[in-house]
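User: Sequence recovery, please. Input:
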């Protein structure tokens, strides 16, 4: 069986998946038998969905490219601010469609993303197979802290969430996918993910919603919103004020990006 040897280098956050001695440097990899470049990079611990561009000997290639002996391979992560659709061979469309699905370990991040207006699916009953299938069928970005999940072949969009704290996780996602300008706070229900709309208190239909609202709140509040899915009623009380402060704190991170 023929032996192959190549030089490969990973850039930016892709280095997070590598051992210290292979980060931010070109290194040699050797093996026997033909293999695709996708198989090669994932054998080194880097999920293919974290990659937006692979250049071999100066030419952009697809995941199905069969690696040749003495190739020089450069591997780049998801590009935040540049549309590289005209040069990358990895996907037919750039990774810019901000709808998500999260695994069971990211429950608090789900609420933050919905609070900021993003479409996020979440169900504690879904296993890895379910998550991968839904992400593939609906073209959603799969967010997880499990790299093995993102190595499933059918997953085309996904990111490993590096941070542990939810408030830092939302900043990480907004930064890495450059979604700051797509933020629309309070436009989705944080419980069921559907859109919310403002209720008109002078409309006859509002009489049917009053029973869901505490009497004390009805005495002072004149602005209400209703989820179009689960029917949950929202108003701008103390909880709204706390969430508004959190949103302002997170949005302030936009200007701190390097």
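Assistant: Recovered sequence (258 residues):
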């Amino acid at each position: 069986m023929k032996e192959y040897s190549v030089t490969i280098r990973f850039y930016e956050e892709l280095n997070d998946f590598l051992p210290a001695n292979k980060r931010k440097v070109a290194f040699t990899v050797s093996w026997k038998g033909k293999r695709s470049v996708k198989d090669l990079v994932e054998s080194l611990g880097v999920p293919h969905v974290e990659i937006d561009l692979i250049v071999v000997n100066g030419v952009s290639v697809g995941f199905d490219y069969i690696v040749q002996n003495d190739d020089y391979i450069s591997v780049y992560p998801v590009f935040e601010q540049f549309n590289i659709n005209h040069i990358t061979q990895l996907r037919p469309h750039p990774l810019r469609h901000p709808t998500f699905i999260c695994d069971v370990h990211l429950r608090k991040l789900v609420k933050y993303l919905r609070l900021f207006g993003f479409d996020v699916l979440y169900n504690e009953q879904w296993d890895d197979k379910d998550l991968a299938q839904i992400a593939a069928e609906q073209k959603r970005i799969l967010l997880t802290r499990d790299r093995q999940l993102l190595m499933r072949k059918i997953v085309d969009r996904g990111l490993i969430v590096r941070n542990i704290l939810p408030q830092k996780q939302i900043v990480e996602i907004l930064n890495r996918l450059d979604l700051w300008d797509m933020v629309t706070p309070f436009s989705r229900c944080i419980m069921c993910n559907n859109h919310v709309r403002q209720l008109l208190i002078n409309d006859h239909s509002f009489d049917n919603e009053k029973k869901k609202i505490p009497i004390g709140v009805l005495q002072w509040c004149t602005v209400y919103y209703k989820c179009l899915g689960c029917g949950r009623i929202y108003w701008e009380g103390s909880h709204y004020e706390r969430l508004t402060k959190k949103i302002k704190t997170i949005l302030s991170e936009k200007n701190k990006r390097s």
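The first strand starts at residue 3 and ends at 10.
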